[in-house]
Amino acid sequence: EDGKPIFQHEALGPDGLAEVGVEIQSGQTYINKCVPTNATESVVGGQPTINQQQQHRETPVNYRAPVPSVVDQ
């Protein structure tokens, strides 16, 4: 409620990637992304529907090493 992100998201920038130079600890997310749930379906050769609603699910990548690390590039 104070405008700060939760511990797990503290290293993330506005683009969903950890900022360069930030120290991350075990359990923190360094890539926060969403992928389509129908990723196995192919639209090649098919006609996409105009009002088709895509379903997405969050698939974050979390740092799991026992010692902290610094994000580089």
Tell me the strand percentage band: 15-25%
Radius of gyration: 17 Å
Please state the oligomeric state of the protein chains shown. single chain
Low-pLDDT stretches:
none
**What is the overall number of helices?**
0
In what order do the strands lie side by side in the largest sheet?
Answer: 1-6
Q: What's the SSE pattern?
A: EEEEEE
Largest sheet: 2 strands, antiparallel
**Terminal-residue CA separation:** 31 Å
Coarse morphology: elongated
Number of individual domains: 1
Q: Determine the structural class based on helices, strands and strand pairing.
A: mainly beta
pLDDT averaged over residues: 87
Q: What does this molecule look like?
A:
Strands 1-6 form a two-stranded antiparallel sheet. Strands 2-5 form a two-stranded antiparallel sheet. It contains no helices and 6 strands. It is mostly beta strands. 0% of the residues lie in helices and 21% in strands. The chain has one domain (1-38, 53-73). The mean pLDDT is 87. The protein has strands at residues 23-24, 29-31, 34-36, 56-58, 61-62, 69-70. 8% of the residues are buried. The chain starts with 22 loop residues before the first strand and ends with a strand.
